[in-house]
Write a structure and sequence with these properties.
6-stranded mixed sheet, alpha/beta
Length: about 150
């Protein structure tokens, strides 16, 4: 079962968490501003979503990993990193750094924001990580066709 590290359990991230129980994915890490919650045995996505809906930090659920999100990505090493952060609020440079950390670790990356992708599309879509960046949904369903044309 592929493992997932969700970054950004805000509105979009909570929608993703709500879909997880019906999927063949196992959530092993979630990162917010307070740190990264990790359980190799798996986290309950609905419990995490409910916790975040109440506006509470992940640090209240147990000892989060300390350090940057980029360091957590490398330490967690889930099969897939889902970046559901608001790249406008968090900043394009930060979104690029998170994406590069995931791709440098050999992981798959799924994006919900367009800013980072727009800034580094040739690097991520045509370079070494080609085929490991999920862009179909972020481009309104046109990502798969775009990748075929590239």
């Amino acid at each position: 079962m592929p493992t997932v590290h969700l970054i950004g359990p805000g509105h979009v991230g909570r929608e993703f968490l709500a879909l997880m129980p019906a999927s063949a994915l196992r959530l092993i890490a979630v990162s917010d501003r307070s740190g990264t919650l990790l359980s190799r045995d798996g986290l309950d996505p609905l419990a995490v979503a409910a916790h975040k809906l109440d506006g509470r930090p992940l640090s209240q659920l147990g000892g989060p990993l300390a350090g940057s999100v980029e360091a957590a990505i490398a330490q967690v090493r889930a099969d897939v990193v889902v970046d559901a952060t608001d790249s406008v609020k968090a900043g394009t440079a930060a979104a690029i750094a998170r994406g590069r950390a995931a791709l440098a670790a050999g992981l798959r990356l799924v994006l919900s924001g367009k800013n980072a992708l727009a800034a580094v599309a040739p690097e991520w879509l045509l370079g070494h990580p080609r085929g490991r960046v999920g862009v179909n949904a972020v481009l309104g369903g046109a990502g798969a066709q775009m990748l075929r044309e590239l």
